[in-house]
Amino acid sequence: MSVVGPYRGLFSTPGVKGFVIAGFFGRMPMSMLGIGIVLLIEALTDSYATAGAVAATVSVSLAVAAPLSGRLVDRFGQARIVIPLTLAHGATLTGMMLCAKFGAPRWTLFATGVAVGATALSLGSLVRARWSHLLGGTARLHTAFSFESVADEVIFVAGPALVTALATMINPYAGLIVALTCTTIGTIAFGLQRGTEPPIRPREERSGTPITIPGVALMSCAFLAMGAVFGSVDLVTVAFAEEQGAKPAAGLLLASFAGGSLVSGLWYGARQWTVSLRGRFIGSLAVFALGLTPIMLIDDVRTMAGALFLAGLAISPTVITGYSLTEQLVPVHLLTEGMAWISTSVGFGVAIGAWAGGRLTDAFGASNAYGFSFVCALLAVTVGVGGSAWLRTPVARQQS
């Protein structure tokens, strides 16, 4: 009860339940899209190389476009951007599936992949921008960001398992069709809820870009390194399970990693904190690196599940604190774009980590390839410590 209690008060504000539920379903595909594309294209082309390359194209395109769509939202309002982009995303994803079905030239898969990523929304940033509009400057905002981090982890635990089951047991298209349905209905429902939408700022206020703020640039570098951890751990863990003769256990191992983050997110959001955001961010990065140390030394699947759960415990506190720092460092008229930079940095990091993890696994084996994940976590700590002065928030606000 002491953990759940602080979250109950979040939903007393009118309109909150509606945008939270719509936002949850609208961003379900963020954990389904990549693996759904891999499963579909591999089934139709019999080529993992093509499938992986198309999925990577979508990820990079999304990472590039996220700050740009965030800027459009800040300038014109959520509803005016969300609904057209969602419809365009549905059309381009449908186009990709049709190109794959009818055996169109392979370049069309990459062309539609760019369009799919460019029209995908970083909906988590928009949801958090609404929370900031409603609760900004209060202790409850920390709890709200924690709740959203927990929701993200639920999505990352359930999404890949759902899309894999649909694609392998029903039809190769089924996973992407469900993802498309969720994002279309959820995101449009989110955009239509105007009562909680952040206001559009006067034209003269809308200038600058968050990435030029030193603290935001520093966190972007740290989250780039964290993303490389996520991308490499995902790939290397599948290879580790296969090396141990238990490839089907890969999903359980990755769920353990996300499960640790889910549990810590609930705990972190329920606590009253006196340590500064800057101290919490650096401390969480250090715990993350420390937690990754044992996975390089384990050669048993069951032990690895426990180790990955422990390693995941620092993920949510780091992400939650990163969003909270962004909320305080970035001017309100650039908030959505500022939060989108976190998603962009993680996205680029995941692409780098997956590529490097695959290369290192082929060359040195899975257990040794985990060393890359550990080095990236150490790099994130080094960046955070080295630039910690930039994380001092300009305005003293109530901390939770």
Automatic annotation (TrEMBL):
Cross-referenced InterPro entries: MFS (IPR011701), MFS_trans_sf (IPR036259)
TM regions (residue ranges): 20-41, 48-69, 81-100, 107-127, 170-190, 211-230, 250-269, 281-298, 304-326, 338-357, 369-391
One Pfam family, short name: MFS_1
Residue stretches in coiled coil: none
Keywords: Membrane, Transmembrane, Transmembrane helix
Tree of life domain: Bacteria
Membrane found in the keyword field: yes
Membrane listed as a keyword: yes
Listed PANTHER family: MAJOR FACILITATOR SUPERFAMILY (MFS) PROFILE DOMAIN-CONTAINING PROTEIN (PTHR23542:SF1), PTHR23542
Name of the protein in question: MFS transporter
Native source species: Streptosporangium amethystogenes subsp. fukuiense
